[in-house]
Specification:
single chain; about 280 residues; six-stranded mixed beta sheet
């Protein structure tokens, strides 16, 4: 049986400050200047890791060791760990919808996404009641996580007292229409607070798939190298560095970037072997 998670149980969190997990990892080149703090909390919602073509289930089991390990070794290590120097990181495990739910009609898919969101909501309520302690909050997410994060922001933050605690929401990898929120604005620069940051990344020159090319709304797209919404190309010199597959290697000036229609275009990562790198959609942000 696919049980509901119990968020009083540390095992049902992929990242939690009371246990050692992948979000605690720090790349070797950054360790000398690492000064941990706990002023702000990050509530991180990981992307889809239930992707197997042979999987029959529509929602992941909380106790699926293979899926949990895949989540921890990918999203939690490479994404959630970004925040661990100045924040406590909380990332719930949840009964995520299978990737194929994004490619069927919305009415059929909605119950699977609702199951996933039910867990996210319950985790956030538990976090607020037992763990937050009045700290400011950052919401961070990627891909499917962004679908649930936007819903969470609508339900718990927008025009609610908790909106005053929102430092920023980094909701990446799925489009967020500019008019989705009535009172939570897009960030105007790198020092803005109480706002959202979003983008989707494609290799420069790649023609967007039809589902993007036919979008009838304008998405929030902020260039993370400049924190602006103009279409100017920002050179790789403005990219302080990236952590790619080798977690313990910092790649300086990895990419340049510019906004193109509803997505962010970037160059190939400036690494050895880039000429044989053919991936069209890039997920290293």
């Amino acid at each position: 049986m696919n049980r509901k998670p119990d968020y009083s149980n540390l095992n049902d969190w992929a990242a939690h400050p009371w246990k050692k997990d992948a979000s605690d990892s720090v790349p070797k080149p950054l360790r000398a200047s690492y000064t941990p703090d706990s002023t702000v909390d990050v509530f991180f919602i990981h992307p889809t890791t239930l992707t197997g073509t042979d999987a029959v289930e529509w929602n992941a089991a909380i106790d699926d060791a293979t899926i949990n390990s895949k989540t921890d070794r990918s999203s939690i290590l490479y994404q959630a760990s970004v925040f661990n120097e100045q924040c406590r990181v909380f990332a719930p495990r949840y009964r995520q919808a299978h990737l194929r739910a994004f490619f069927i009609d919305k009415e059929t898919a909605q119950p699977y996404f609702d199951t996933a969101y039910e867990d996210i909501k319950n985790a956030f309520v538990y976090y607020l009641e037992h763990l937050n302690g009045g700290r400011p909050i950052i919401i961070a997410s990627h891909s499917q996580g962004t679908l649930h994060a936007a819903r969470l922001l609508k339900e718990f933050f927008e025009n609610k007292p908790l909106q005053n605690k929102l430092v920023c929401a980094y909701i990446i990898g799925l489009p967020v229409p500019e008019d989705y929120f009535a009172s939570i604005p897009s960030c105007k620069d790198s020092s803005s607070t109480g706002c959202i940051v979003s983008w989707r990344t494609f290799k420069r020159g790649y023609t967007e798939p039809r589902f993007i090319a036919t979008e009838n709304f304008k998405a929030v797209v902020i260039n993370p190298l400049s924190w602006t919404t103009d279409t100017l190309l920002v050179p790789a010199a403005k990219n302080e560095g990236a952590i790619l597959l080798n977690f313990n290697k910092l790649v300086p000036h990895a990419v340049n970037a510019n906004i193109h229609h509803n997505v962010l275009w970037t160059s190939k990562p400036n690494v050895f072997g880039k000429n044989i790198f053919h991936q069209k959609e890039l997920s290293y942000w």
